[in-house]
């Protein structure tokens, strides 16, 4: 009989229950990820007795530092149990190790399961009660397998480090044990436990065999030399207790560990296509917290959950999904983007239709990038690097316009990095059917599909009809839903009667109500369409949008509504409206549009392309904040930034002079209804009697089909595609080109081609045209056997596709650059500006000849020589200004281009859009648009020149010019304007407040910014700081890449082994 072991005193503590769910089912199943719950069991009022090794109940204790501490894993002291086992072992030398292991594991595991058999005594003879131990062991085996209870109260910070490590080890062991079955599972677990104990008595355990093979006896071990197991554990625990506490916060360490663990779990989940999608759709739970923090999103809509859990997405199939405007499509795309960046560790390309939306998205996602450790890179206007920097650690999210997205994909294919692009997301997929931009988008997607089998494509739109063609083109599944967070009610108004759109009615409409607003005779003449009656039903309490056919009509409607509104409208948020006017004056350097000055006090403004970027941003922010309650706008707002309203009014069923298309109509009325604010949204289309039948057809007709624009847009479409296919070596023979073209949308829809020309005929014609223009080399014969002849690209052709130059202008650009080499005037940048003036803007230009002559006379003699060099002599300008007839024909394209270069030249000197627009009698919006287009075109010309050695002199010159055109501000403001969302007016405020560099902004305190910068909200301040941090991180990564490249050992060192 063994001697009674030393008694252990128990401290009164709450019972702690802990069980483990399988790790595969929940990412938070590990101790680090468990949610900490409040204690659910009251503290015991009396100290429970403890059974000593001899079977006697005692409360005495030896005085040591661990004897007074409870077992963290049950109600028995760990050291007491270890001591008991030692005593039993010493008394019965002949007991086999397997039995000892079973005994130990039974006791320890019974503590884990909260002593389901509390009367099990550790003092009984081990050999005499072997059957009982086997029964107890079997019970614990079942507990290991079947225990599914939720974790109880367990405060990790309270644990000594030794117990914390033990907890982690037990979790790993239990996880490993579930991967096998039967006795093998338990034996493996026992071996792991024995290894953890590190007892010398077990030093010669043989390798595990199948069946019930006995472990070898321990007689070979020198028991007299072994250290007491209890002393061994006490020594380890004492060492841990004496270890210095790290300076890093344990809570912070745990949070980082949770994020790291969940990312790993999510990555494994995605790679294995498991049904277990982790804590938040395969993403760390921090993503859900960030959505709540940055977007106010608590839960997803049901359709969003259904879409994210589609089997096609788990199988990485391409997907097209379509929902009404404001249905929440973008959030699904953003979650998929985060899955790709964080879980699969691949780069992502997001293609958006307009520069303003790209900037808004970069602004919005930079905060996520800073928190989750990925880069957000802007590819719009003149911004973007080709090819993009290959990042060492972080992955990149490229947010690009359609044109920049195409150039980016070309550069990735050329550098054989297209497989690093894991996901491409396309917003407004219906733009495939819209002109030259649709053609460029089709080329981009076709190249990705053809060159990379690992890149997934996700397309979304609110207005799709012939989805079958798009599915076939993109090899995609399709998901659709009619969900809208806010109900939309459609109405039309004819005279003073309002009808509700009803598809079940015979003519599509049913009577709703009569307008009750009383009009005077004067008001009836001024407002025959009853716009004032419609808007005053909702403003100022709710918001309203009025879509107008033209820019001028927007301004007229805004002025007319204000003229007849009551004075009480001025009192609504009066101070904020005064601040807005003050801000607009600052933006215009003291100038403000007289229409806005009159309308803003009533809470009304107009919104169209005639505004500068700063003005548009200020008006949009004021509308979103409720300071402005009515915007009169053009159709571009419907496809641009998200500005919803309670009521949307369509002033007429026209966009400019063209009758409204169903897609446009759906985009406009989709702005009605604000999720979380309105219970319903309304749209009212004002219809004249003459248009009644057309409107009936419009409302009841299906959406327009989406057709390929590769053929209609000849130079920007199919010819440009053929050139780049050969240049990138995607396809270099007619046969290969035809194979590629069959996989485009044009190839899918080739049955719509005229019978006179087949797809192959169109390809041959395009290739021949490229050869004639000196862009391709090779011969094309009518004979079929020559379809294998190889085509090659010329240097001019390569420069054209890499510079994204329209093939219609590439030869003219080459000639003008060549001519510039003969006598480039560098006294000022006028000559360079002429070369960087975009060709596509010259046809909308009508010069004012008196202004033309005045600006010419203000030039220096050297600058006037530029006009002679390009082909516009002074005598011609003088005669045109005086109204004299001119017999000699002049190229109007050159004349108009030089005039626009005068505008840009003046703008760079004065950096004031307002003053320049007044000097040239142009709208400030047009001047701003010219500047943006010139910056983008200068970037294209730079890439064009980089491919032609003869134009080496232009490289440095155009690099600096592109930077000047991009920002068009004083040099000290440029570092601040590089930050997404910071425009000129905001950059001036920041600079004057002492924030003069990117580092200043990146390290700024948002709360301090709010106090120091006027009209800056807390949300905007946080986004500015996040965007600055993101840009700083990008630049640091780029510099580190250069360092690594310099230090990298070449693989081809002569004489190296």
From TrEMBL:
Residues 310-482 form the Helicase ATP-binding domain. Residues 8-20 have a biased composition (Basic residues). One of its GO terms (cellular component) is chromosome. Residues 534-722 form the Helicase C-terminal domain. Residues 127-136 have a biased composition (Basic and acidic residues). Residues 1-59, 109-138 are annotated as: Disordered. GO terms for biological process: DNA repair. One of its GO terms (molecular function) is hydrolase activity. It holds the Pfam family HTH_61. Keywords: ATP-binding, Helicase, Hydrolase, Nucleotide-binding. CDD domains: DEXHc_POLQ-like, SF2_C_Ski2. It catalyses: ATP + H2O = ADP + phosphate + H(+). This is Helicase POLQ-like isoform X1.
């Amino acid at each position: 009989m063994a001697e009674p072991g030393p008694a252990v005193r128990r401290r009164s503590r709450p019972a702690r229950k802990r069980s483990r769910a399988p790790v595969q089912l929940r990412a938070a199943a590990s101790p680090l990820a468990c949610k900490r719950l409040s204690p659910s069991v009251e503290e015991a009022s009396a100290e429970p007795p403890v059974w000593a090794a001899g079977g006697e109940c005692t409360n005495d204790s030896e005085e040591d530092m661990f004897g007074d501490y409870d077992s963290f894993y049950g109600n028995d002291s760990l050291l007491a149990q270890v001591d008991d086992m030692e005593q039993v072992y010493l008394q019965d030398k002949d007991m086999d190790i397997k039995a000892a292991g079973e005994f130990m594991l039974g006791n320890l595991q019974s503590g884990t399961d909260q002593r389901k058999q509390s009367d099990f005594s550790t003092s009984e003879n081990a050999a005499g009660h072997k059957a009982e131990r086997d029964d107890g062991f079997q019970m614990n085996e079942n507990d290991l397998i079947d225990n599914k209870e939720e974790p109880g109260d367990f405060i990790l910070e309270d644990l000594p480090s030794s117990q914390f490590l033990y907890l982690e080890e037990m979790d790993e062991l239990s996880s490993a044990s579930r991967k096998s079955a039967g006795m093998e599972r338990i034996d493996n677990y026992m071996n792991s436990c024995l290894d953890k104990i590190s007892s010398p008595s077990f030093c010669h355990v043989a390798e595990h065999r199948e069946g019930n093979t006995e472990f070898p006896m321990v007689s070979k071990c020198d028991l007299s030399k072994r250290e007491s197991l209890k002393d061994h554990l006490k020594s380890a625990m004492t060492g841990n207790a004496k270890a210095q506490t790290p300076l890093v916060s344990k809570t912070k360490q745990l949070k980082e560990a949770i994020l790291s663990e969940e990312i790993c779990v999510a990555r494994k989940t995605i790679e294995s296509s498991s049904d277990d999608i982790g804590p938040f759709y395969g993403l760390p739970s921090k993503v859900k917290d960030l959505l709540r923090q940055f977007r106010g999103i608590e839960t997803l809509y049901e359709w969003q959950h259904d879409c994210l859990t589609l089997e096609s997405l788990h199988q990485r199939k391409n997907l097209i999904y379509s929902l009404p405007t404001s249905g929440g499509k973008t959030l699904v795309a953003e979650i998929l983007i985060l899955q790709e960046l964080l879980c699969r560790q691949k780069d992502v390309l997001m293609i958006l239709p307009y520069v303003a939306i790209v900037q808004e998205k970069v602004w919005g996602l930079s905060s996520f990038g800073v928190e989750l450790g990925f880069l957000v890179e802007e590819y719009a206007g003149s911004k973007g690097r080709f090819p993009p920097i290959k990042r060492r650690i972080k992955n990149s999210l490229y947010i690009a316009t359609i044109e920049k997205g195409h150039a980016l994909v070309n550069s990735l294919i050329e550098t054989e990095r297209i497989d690093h692009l894991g996901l491409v997301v396309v917003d407004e997929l219906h733009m495939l059917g819209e002109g030259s931009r649709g053609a460029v988008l089709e080329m981009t997607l076709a190249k990705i599909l053809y060159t990379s089998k690992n890149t997934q494509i996700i397309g979304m739109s609110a207005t799709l009809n012939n989805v079958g063609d798009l599915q076939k083109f993109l090899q995609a599944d399709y998901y659709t839903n009619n969900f809208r967070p806010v109900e939309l009610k459609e109405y039309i108004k004819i005279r003073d009667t309002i009808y509700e759109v009803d598809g079940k009615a015979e003519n599509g409409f049913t009577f709703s109500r009569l307008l009750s607003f009383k009009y005077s005779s004067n008001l009836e003449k001024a407002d025959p369409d009853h716009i004032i009656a419609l808007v005053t039903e909702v403003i100022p309490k709710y918001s309203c949008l009025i879509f107008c056919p033209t820019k001028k009509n927007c301004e007229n409607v805004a002025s007319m509504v204000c003229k007849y509104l009551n004075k009480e409208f001025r009192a609504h948020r009066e101070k904020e409206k005064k601040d807005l006017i003050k801000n607009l004056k600052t933006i215009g350097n003291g100038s403000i549009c007289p229409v806005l000055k009159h309308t803003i006090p009533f809470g009304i403004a107009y919104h169209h392309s005639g505004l500068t970027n700063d003005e548009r941003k200020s008006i949009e922010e004021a509308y979103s904040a409720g300071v402005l309650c009515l915007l009169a706008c053009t159709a571009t707002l419907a496809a641009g930034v998200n500005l919803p309203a309670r009521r949307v009014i369509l002033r007429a069923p026209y966009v400019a002079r063209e009758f409204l298309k169903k897609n446009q109509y759906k985009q406009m009325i989709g702005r009605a209804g604000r999720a979380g604010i309105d219970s319903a949204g309304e749209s009212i289309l004002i219809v004249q009697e003459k248009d009644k039948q057309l409107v009936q057809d419009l409302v009841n007709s299906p959406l327009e089909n989406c057709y390929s624009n590769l053929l209609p847009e000849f130079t920007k479409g199919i010819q440009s595609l053929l050139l780049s296919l050969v240049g990138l070596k995607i396809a270099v023979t007619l046969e290969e080109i035809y194979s590629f073209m069959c996989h485009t949308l044009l190839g899918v829809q080739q049955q719509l081609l005229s019978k006179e020309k087949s797809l192959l005929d169109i390809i041959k014609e395009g290739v021949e045209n490229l050869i004639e223009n000196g862009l391709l080399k090779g011969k094309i014969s009518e004979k079929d056997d020559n379809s294998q002849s190889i085509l090659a690209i010329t240097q001019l052709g390569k420069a054209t596709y890499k510079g994204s130059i329209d093939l219609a202008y590439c030869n003219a650009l080459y000639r003008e650059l060549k001519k510039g080499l003969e006598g480039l005037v560098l006294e000022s940048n006028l000559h360079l500006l002429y070369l960087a003036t975009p060709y596509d803007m010259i046809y909308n230009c009508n010069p004012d000849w008196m202004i033309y002559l005045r600006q010419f006379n203000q030039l220096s003699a050297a600058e006037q020589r530029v006009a002679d060099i390009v082909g516009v002599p002074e005598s011609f300008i003088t005669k045109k200004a005086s109204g004299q007839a001119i017999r000699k024909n002049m190229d109007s394209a050159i004349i108009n281009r030089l005039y626009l270069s005068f505008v840009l030249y003046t703008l760079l000197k004065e950096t004031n859009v307002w003053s320049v627009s007044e000097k040239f009698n142009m709208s400030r919006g047009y001047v701003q648009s010219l500047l943006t287009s010139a910056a983008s075109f200068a970037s294209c010309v730079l890439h064009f020149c980089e491919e032609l050695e003869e134009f080496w002199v232009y490289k440095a010159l155009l690099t600096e010019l592109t930077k000047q055109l991009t920002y068009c501000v004083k040099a000290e403001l440029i570092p601040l304007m590089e930050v997404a969302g910071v425009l000129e007016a905001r950059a001036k405020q920041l600079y004057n407040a002492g924030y003069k560099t990117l580092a200043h902004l990146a390290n700024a305190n948002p709360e301090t910014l709010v106090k120091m910068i006027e009209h800056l909200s807390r949300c905007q301040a946080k986004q500015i700081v996040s965007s600055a941090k993101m840009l700083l991180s990008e630049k640091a990564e780029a510099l580190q890449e250069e360092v690594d490249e310099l230090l990298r050992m070449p693989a081809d060192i002569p004489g190296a082994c």
